[in-house]
Each structure stands twice: as structure tokens, then as C-alpha cells.
Specification:
Layout (H helix, E strand, L loop, with lengths): L1 H15 L2 E4 L5 E3 L9 E8 L1 H4 L5 E9 L11 E9 L17 E7 L6 E12 L4 E8 L11 E5 L5 E6 L13 E3 L1 E3 L1 E4 L12 E3 L4 E4 L5 E3 L7 E7 L8 E6 L3 E2 L10 E10 L2 E2 L6 E5 L13 E2 L12 E4 L21 E6 L5 E10 L8 E9 L2 E8 L3 E4 L7 E8 L7 E9 L13 E2 L5 E5 L24 E6 L4 E7 L8 E9 L2 E8 L8 E6 L5 E8 L11 E7 L16 E2 L6 E4 L5 E8 L4 E6 L4 E3 L6 E9 L4 E8 L1
Parallel strand pairs: 15-22, 23-25, 32-34
Antiparallel strand pairs: 1-13, 2-9, 3-8, 3-10, 4-7, 4-13, 5-6, 5-8, 9-12, 10-11, 14-16, 16-19, 17-18, 17-20, 20-21, 20-22, 24-31, 25-30, 26-29, 26-31, 27-28, 27-30, 33-40, 34-39, 35-38, 35-40, 36-37, 36-39, 41-42, 42-45, 43-44, 43-46, 46-47
Amino acid sequence: MKKILLSCLFLIGMITHAQINLGTGSTSAGPQPISNYYSYSYVQQIFSKYEINAVSAGSITGLKFYLNNTLSLTNSSNWAVYVGHTSKGSFDFENSWIPVSQLTQVFSGNVLNNNGVVSINFTTPFFYNNADNLVVAIKESDPGYDGSAEAFYVYDSAPRSSMYFRSDFTNPNLSSPPSGTPNDTKSVISIEGLTANTTPACPTITFPSDNSEFIFINPQISWVAVPGALQYRISVGTTPGGEDIVSQQLTSATNYTPAPTLNINSSYYIKLIAITAAGESAGCSVSKFTTVPLTPTNDECSDAVPLTVNPDLNCGTVTAGYNLGGSDSGITPDPCNGLPDADVWFKFFATESSHVISLRNIQSIGSDYSTDMNFQVFSGNCGNLSSIFCSDSNSSLVPGLTVGETYYVRVYSYWGGDYAQSFNVCVGTMPPAPVNDDCFGAFSVAGFPYNHTQLDAAGSTNNNGFITTCTEDHMNDGVWFKFTGNGTNVDIEVLMPNDSLFDPQIGVYSGNCNNLICEGTVDDFEEGGREFISIPTVLGNTYYVNVGHFSGFSDAMEDTFTINMLSNVLSTSAMVKKDKAIKVYPNPFTDNITISDVSNVKSLSITDISGRLIKTIDKPSQTLYLEDLKQGMYLITLFKSDGTQVTIKTIKK
């Protein structure tokens, strides 16, 4: 009896201390599971069933994360932790968050760095079914940051298997998170309560990712090291599970290049297992990829692909294209910019005097990475073309068209050479000016909460020119709303649909349409990013809200958005301050630019006048080397350690 009791106690102890470790040994740092280097963050990570490699379904009782043991989490300790099942293996675009409504909250409270370990003990164990992938989501809400860089340990994992949002200004609303950044690293993590298989986990292939396209015909297949693996066995075939290209090749490396050159425009399948002293991986899935296609069929003007003209701007019909393998049509881009040595051609039949042409879902598929594209519009015919419009932006309104005429669109990589992209082309039709196009026609907000989706914002006419009331941050005259103050804060949020190219700014004013008084303005994010501002109101005062394109010197088109207003809620977002003391010089500049004071600058971003993010730099030096930028106007935004930001307009000659 005593032996049975001791055996039971031993078994219970083993179950209690069951734990699966992923990424062990890596000391690279990143923004998962939270960003300690920014005030607020929200991070989702997908851990596949195969990498978890549990012996069976079971209850997860907690998680452990690892970091530099000297870092204090005084300003990064307020965590809310969610877990759930998902069939997803990756975050395919910036708004592809797994809805928080599909997750279970397992922890809320403050955490500690205990000698390099943050332990999360679940209030209620979460039952993991060992059939789906596991998603771990964490929101960190302390309005401050710790350290001089990210400190949590991460490891290289499957492409886009995590996504993060981090900001010094915006505390994200999990019911509608801001656009995030898909990422290829995940937390070094311990999952408590599950028991690992004695046989090794299936290797996670990092390149080419499953179902990827435009893979070159001599790819180096790469994967994440499996702990304890002595060798790996790889097979490549032209059918699922086939071995006609590579048959069970053994290697001790974590990459392998098939010896025969693969065929173009063909699908291939990879089977990969790990071998340890305890055995081989079992049940590993087959991964598929497709090689680069044939030369584009629309490589020349005479073979231009017809485009469908949409009756609105919703892009219900798009046309897919790519320029990889294209040749030079021999037509100078002048007066446009760029290097059209691999251009492809489309054509459309104008139904209005102006149409909006957009390049969407741009993916880099060349041997050099870039998503920077141009398009050029021509009238005439292929033997006698006249350039009528140039666009370095992904979306532009093309005016001056003749109804009934056919126009040609040439699409190409800005940089030429080894840069190439796949993309979708959309031709849209402008709506008429919206009812609330003018301040005097502002929609009245009858009460809070208020929600309105503006489908016809693209028809906004910038009426009386740019709105310069907020003297330090001008903007386009977009569409208007008005409400009556009730003495509390009013939170105003603007959201865009997925894949939106609209970069909005919110301006809030008191007074009247003939005499607007600035109450606040915000433009924190880029194309498709959520904007948020909180305004304290005076009881009975009238307030006007303008949502328009962010620029105060370039009239650009607005697009579909949703505006939400909520009262009696104090803002958790930090107010953005301006600092006139910091200067950049010379301005205009040629290649290099100097910042007068970077002592308190955490990071900076550079955007072009269309709002497109060009680059970000953490802990910048005083001199920036920007010879790779094209000529034009840019906005340099400095993010300071005290939570303020400075935006400076510069011109490269």
C-alpha cells in the first residue's frame, strides 16, 4: 500500500512539473512576448502543434519567459495574458490579428523579473487539445518603458509566426487592434503542464514558407534547429510525399540546397524530419512551394492585359500581375522616375474623366528586397504613346481622361535590376462629393457612443485648401463631424479596412466654421494605421472633427474609414508634444543630415510625403547617412525618451 501511495505521489509530481521548452539557448532579444522598450505593446505568437510536440492533450498551467536578469520591469509589468487554439500558422498581413473574442484570458496583473525569468501562473488551467496550434497573446499596459533596448529572449521561427504592435503613445484596444508588424521570431518560452514527446519535434521550415510562390529555382531550404538533433532527413518531390528530386538526404546542417536546378513555374513538396538519440520526428507535415513563373505574358505594350473598371473605390475586381522576368520595353520613363527595365503592361477603357489606379498587395519576389513600385499612364496606341501621368505612390487619382478612350498602364520596379514584385492592379471610380465634404455640412453626432463608416470619403474636395488652424501640423480638408461637449473627455478613433492605402489625420476644433480654433490633431501611423485622440470638452461648446489626408502641402485623396467617438472615458494615450529646439541641417540636404540633439532620442522614422514609411532607426547617431533616398520631400519623426515626438520636414536635393 505504501509503495502504491509513493508511486502515485511521484507520478503527480511529474505531472505537476511537466514542461515543454521552446527556443532554449537563444539570447537574441526582440519584442516578444512584450516590448519593454515602448510604453504599450500587444503581441500574438503562434506555436504550432508540431513544434510544441506534446505527448498528448492536457492542461497548460502557466508560461515562463526569459530575459536579461538585470532588467527591472517597473514600467513594463502590467500584463494581460490570453491563450487559445488556432488553425492559422502565420499572420499574413498587418491586420490579421486573431480576434481576442476567440481567446481565453488566463492572467491579469503585475509580473516580476525573477533572476531572468518571468513566470505566469494561470488563474484557471487552459486545456490544450494537441490538435490545433496554440496562440499566446499578451498586452502590456504600463505607460512607461524599461531599459535601452528590447530585453526578452527570442528565437528564429516560422515566417510571420508572430505579430507585434508597440507604441509610446497608443494603448491598443484589443477589440480592434492597430496594424501590427508580422515577424519571424518568437519568445523563448516554457509551457508548463504539458509533457514533451520523447521523439523529437518536427523541424520548422523557415524558407521557403508553406504555399509560398515565386521561389527561385536553386533555393536554399532552411529550418530551425531541433534540440538534440544529430541529423536531419530531407526529401523533395514533385508530388506530396514524393522523393524524385531529393530522396531522404541526411545532413547535420540546418539548410540544404537541392543539387538539380528546379524547373520554373512548378510546384515542389518538402518532407523534413529530425533524428536524435531518442528517435525520429513523427507525423511531420509536407510543405509546398512554387518556383518562379514564366516570362510575364504582358511583357510588351501590344500584349497589355485588360483591366476591369470598378464602379466605386472598393476594388471588388482586381487583376494580378508580376514583373519578375520582364524585359525593357525600350520606352523612356521621362517625365517619370525609376528604372523600367522589367516593365509589364495593362490597359483600361475610361468610363469617367478621372479614375483611381492602385497597386495593392505588393510582395517583393526579386533576389533583392523592395516593394517600391511606379506606374505610368499613356494615351494613344502602342505605336504612338503619350505619357499623361506618373505615380510613385501606390495609389493615385488620374485626371483629365476622355470617356470612351483606352489608356495604357506601365507598371515597374522603381529600382530596376534584381528588384521585382507581384501585385494586384485596381482601377476605381470616384464617388461624388460627400454630404459632409464642407465644415458647414458636418454630420451632427447626436449622442455617444457614435459610429459611422464613411464610404464616399474619396470624393472629398479639399474645399478651401489646407487646414492650417493647428499651426504646427497642417492637413487636408477631408470630411467633417460635429458634437456638443459634455464636460468630459471625448475619445475619437479612426480605423481603415484591411489593405487600405489611406493615411488619415484627425483635426479637432472649437469655435465655428468661419473661425476654427485648434483643440488637437494626431497623425501617429502610416497607411492603413489606426489614429486616436482624446479631447477634453467644455459643457455646451461645439466641436468640429475633420478626417483628411495627413499632408498640409500635398492634396491627396481620402478613402473609406470608420470613425468611433466615445465619451466619459479618460484617455490612456500619451499626448504628443512638439519640441521646437531640435533642428536638422542642412535642409535641403544632399546625402547626409545632422540632428542638433539626439541625446534623448530613442528612435526615428522617415516617411515620404505620401505617408509611406521609408525606414526606422533605433538609437540614431547625430549624423544620418541617407544617400539611398530618392530626391524629394520627407518627414523625419524623432521619438524621445520622455514620450514626446518631433516631426521635421526635410528635402533631399
